[in-house]
Design goal:
Elements lengths: L13 E2 H9 L1 H9 L1 H4 L6 H17 L7 E2 L5 H12 L4 E3 L2 E4 L2 E4 L2 E5 L4 E7 L10 H14 L4 E9 L11 H4 E5 L1 H22 L23 H4 L18 H9 L16 H12 L3 E2 L1 H9 L5 E10 L13 E11 L7 E6 L7 H12 L5 E3 L2 H14 L4 H7 L3 E3 L2 H4 L3 E2 L9 H8 L13 H12 L5 H32 L1
Parallel strand pairs: 1-5, 2-3, 7-8, 11-14, 14-15
Antiparallel strand pairs: 3-6, 4-5, 6-7, 8-9, 10-16, 11-12, 12-13
Helix pairs in contact: 1-2, 1-6, 4-18, 6-8, 14-15, 17-19, 18-19
Length: about 500
């Protein structure tokens, strides 16, 4: 490194995070920098915050692979000076060293000095279970280019990610928990193009006036829109062609519509060939009519046997396995709710399970299920792949439970199928089939809006905070109650939707 002069930061420094976001949607990042009030208008959910916390947790554990490393804690000019001091001393391992040069800024997850070659290797820690070649390579290439600007000789580039094949048995085996993948050649192959794109990003983001035109997300389905989509594209109505089912998988089709300035469903020309499901959604919207296939719904419901068990699970996807038999991101089943309906004329009976201890809840969870589900009657769920998947995982970990859990498979009925198969279509479903999309339409008196916990991600995060000791006694009691209310509403919502359909027949 030539000297230790610290360059002052410019008004706009492009971070590696913003560079990756820029590649997804430049205008969204422009808002982030120049109009943060708009960018933060939609606050991060508790689930989104938990994802960030997971990333931090994985990185902390990964550092154990590099004993003796020194953490650069500050993210300001003092942190930059500290980084340069350690670089001058040839410190072997640095965690989060921060570099700034020519309007580029990055904190490196792990930087390792090789005295033999006088070069540095870059290690990027990802909380994923594999390498994403669409983002991870670019992330590392950005870092490599910056370090070379700072006159550091760069050796290899690595990605450290979780090993999905690892199964915990006893204490965590750090070496087996992670995979270290050498991606040096892949990073080198795109380094030049990343350098060019990074300069373009600086120019774009340095504009003081809002860039014209649509944001990149205009060509994506609704679920992939950035947080500032509506600000960037005011011409697009709240319910648009972006909401057509699976339109994001039909990129050419969506592009043709957008390039023709067609955003409203009632403006789609006849030559645009939609799938049957897509066309049914559009027809329902245009006709403003509810389409109900009573014969098919009757056929579906004839397969059900009383008593009906409306069942819902809540789970926590621990990135770092907490218990024996678990792999990274295996779901910890901590809660269920079940509403038992003995006949169509009865009212459902409610039962529940919630484990708030620090031990593995799997056995207690399944034994409690066995108590309430019995041996006969249909088990009604929403999106059965989830519950069935969790049952299989528990059975694999605890073989003595396998006969019981396997026997549940033939009893499980997926209520979402009614809507997925379009036996009931309403324009206000907006092409979706989630319970939170269906419930307000069929049972408007029920709502998640007033709940403190409104989704499974927030429920998982709340449970994790309970068992991690993040709450005082009063907060813990409130959190437990909120979990019970949320999960209970999930099953009562299923019963209520079933009842609404039953009354139509």
């Amino acid at each position: 490194m030539r000297g230790r002069k610290l360059l002052k930061t410019m008004a706009i420094n492009l971070t590696k995070t913003d560079y990756i976001l820029y590649r997804e949607c430049p205008k969204n990042v422009w808002y982030k920098i120049h109009k943060p009030d708009i960018y933060t208008e939609s606050e991060l959910s508790e689930f989104e915050k938990s994802i960030m916390e997971t990333g931090n947790e994985v990185e902390l554990v990964a550092r154990k692979l590099f004993p003796g490393g020194i953490l650069i804690e500050r993210r300001d000019e003092e942190g930059q000076r500290t980084t340069l001091d350690y670089i001058a001393k040839n410190q072997e391992i640095l965690f989060q060293p921060i570099f700034v040069k020519d309007n580029f800024l990055a904190a490196i997850d792990i930087l390792k000095f090789n005295p033999a070659t006088e070069s540095y290797s870059i290690y990027e820690v990802k909380s994923t279970s594999d390498v994403d070649d669409k983002t991870h390579y670019h992330d590392l290439a950005f870092q490599k280019n910056l370090l070379q600007k700072c006159d550091l000789k760069i050796g290899n580039a690595y990605i450290i990610h979780l090993n999905s094949d690892y199964v915990r048995s006893g204490d965590i085996d750090i070496a087996q928990l992670f995979k270290i993948v050498d991606v040096s050649s892949e990073v080198e192959s795109i380094a030049e193009s990343v350098a060019i794109e990074s300069v373009e990003a600086i120019k774009y983001l340095s504009q003081t006036t809002e860039p014209s035109g649509y944001c990149y997300c205009i060509y994506k389905g609704r679920s992939r829109h950035c947080s500032t989509f509506q600000h960037a594209n005011p011409e697009v109505p709240d319910y648009s062609v972006h909401d057509i089912a699976r339109i994001g998988n039909s990129k050419a089709k969506l592009k043709e519509l957008i390039d023709s300035n067609i955003f409203h469903l009632d403006k789609i020309p006849a030559h645009i060939k939609l799938t049957d499901i897509q066309q049914s959604q559009v027809d329902t919207y245009n006709l403003n009519k509810v389409l109900v296939n009573k014969e098919k719904i009757v056929e579906e419901f004839r397969t059900l046997t009383f008593p009906l068990y409306f069942l819902d699970y809540e789970t926590f996807p621990a990135a770092i396995p907490r218990f024996d038999g678990f792999s990274p991101y295996n779901q910890i089943p901590f809660q269920y709710s079940v509403d038992v309906l003995k006949s169509a004329e009865d009212k459902p009976e409610h039962y529940e399970f919630l484990h708030i201890g620090s031990d593995d809840p799997s056995m207690a969870f399944a034994e409690s299920l066995q108590k309430y589900l019995g041996t006969s009657g249909s088990i009604v769920v929403w999106h059965k792949g989830f519950e069935c998947g969790r049952n299989d995982e528990i059975a694999n970990r605890i073989p003595v439970l396998k006969p019981f859990l396997d026997a549940l498979k033939v009893r499980i009925y997926d209520l979402e199928d009614i809507f997925r198969k379009q036996y009931h279509i309403h324009r206000d479903f907006r092409g979706g089939t989630s319970i939170k999309r269906i419930l307000p339409v069929l049972v408007p008196k029920l709502s998640y809006k007033e709940l403190e916990i409104r989704d499974g991600g927030s429920a998982a995060d709340t449970w994790n905070k309970i068992v991690s000791g993040n709450y005082n006694d009063a907060e813990k009691e409130r959190a437990i109650n909120n979990l019970k209310i949320y999960c209970g509403l999930d099953t009562f919502a299923m019963y209520s939707i079933w009842l609404a359909l039953h009354k139509l027949l």
